[in-house]
C-alpha cells in the first residue's frame, strides 16, 4: 500500500512543478509583451496583470495550502504503518481533485465548478486525517 500512497504524492509533486512552469511561462510572456513591467516582479505586485498570469500565480500558491496538509498526513501514515486501502483511495481522490482543480483554475476558471472540486478535495483530506488519527490513536 505504501507505494500506491506514494504515487498520489508523486502526482501532487508533478502537478506543483507543472504549475510552476506554467506560471513562469505566463509571467515571462506578460513581461516580454510589456503587459507587466519587470519591476512588478521585485515585490510580486501583479496589479494590472492579465487574468491568465494571476490565475497561474494563484494556482501555484494553492499548491502550498491543502496539499501541505496532505503531504504531512502521508508521511505520518507511512511512519505509523497505517497506510491501507482506504487511505490510498482517499489519497488518490485528493490528488486527482487537485489536478482537476488546477485544470479548471488555469483553464476556463468556472468558479462554481472549481469550488465544488475544492470542497470535494478538502473533504477527502479531512476523511484522510480522521482515518489516520483513529487508526493511530486506537492502535
Describe the secondary structure blueprint for this structure.
Elements: H1 2-32, H2 51-62, H3 66-80, H4 85-106, H5 111-137
Helix pairs in contact: 1-2, 1-3, 1-4, 3-4, 3-5, 4-5
Class computed from helices, strands and strand pairing: mainly alpha
Continuous helix count: 5
Any idea how many domains? Answer: 1
- Percent helix: over 70%
Q: What series of H and E elements makes up the topology?
A: HHHHH
**CATH fold name, please?**
Four Helix Bundle (Hemerythrin (Met), subunit A)
CATH superfamily placement: Membrane associated eicosanoid/glutathione metabolism-like domain
Count every beta strand, where a strand is a DSSP E run of 2 or more residues.
0
Strand content: under 5%
Point out poorly predicted stretches.
none
Q: Assign an overall shape.
A: elongated
Top-tier CATH class? Mainly Alpha
Report on this model:
This protein has 139 residues and is mainly alpha-helical. Helices cover 77% and strands 0% of the residues. Helix 1 packs antiparallel against helix 3 (66-80). The two termini are 18 Å apart. 30% of the residues are buried. The mean pLDDT is 96.
List keywords for this structure.
139 residues, mainly alpha, Four Helix Bundle (Hemerythrin (Met), subunit A), elongated
Amino acid at each position: 500500500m505504501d507505494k500506491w500512497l506514494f504515487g498520489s504524492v508523486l502526482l501532487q509533486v508533478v502537478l506543483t512543478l507543472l504549475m510552476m512552469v506554467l506560471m513562469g511561462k505566463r509571467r515571462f510572456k506578460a513581461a516580454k509583451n510589456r503587459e507587466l513591467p519587470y519591476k512588478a516582479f521585485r515585490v510580486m505586485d501583479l496589479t494590472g496583470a492579465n487574468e491568465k498570469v494571476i490565475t497561474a500565480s494563484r494556482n501555484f500558491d494553492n499548491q502550498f495550502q491543502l496539499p501541505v496538509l496532505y503531504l504531512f498526513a502521508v508521511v505520518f501514515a507511512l511512519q505509523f504503518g497505517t497506510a491501507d486501502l482506504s487511505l490510498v483511495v482517499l489519497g488518490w481522490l485528493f490528488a486527482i481533485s487537485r489536478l482537476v482543480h488546477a485544470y479548471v483554475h488555469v483553464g476556463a476558471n468556472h468558479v462554481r465548478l472549481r469550488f465544488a472540486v475544492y470542497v470535494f478535495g478538502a473533504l477527502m483530506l479531512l476523511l484522510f486525517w480522521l482515518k489516520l488519527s483513529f487508526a493511530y490513536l486506537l492502535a
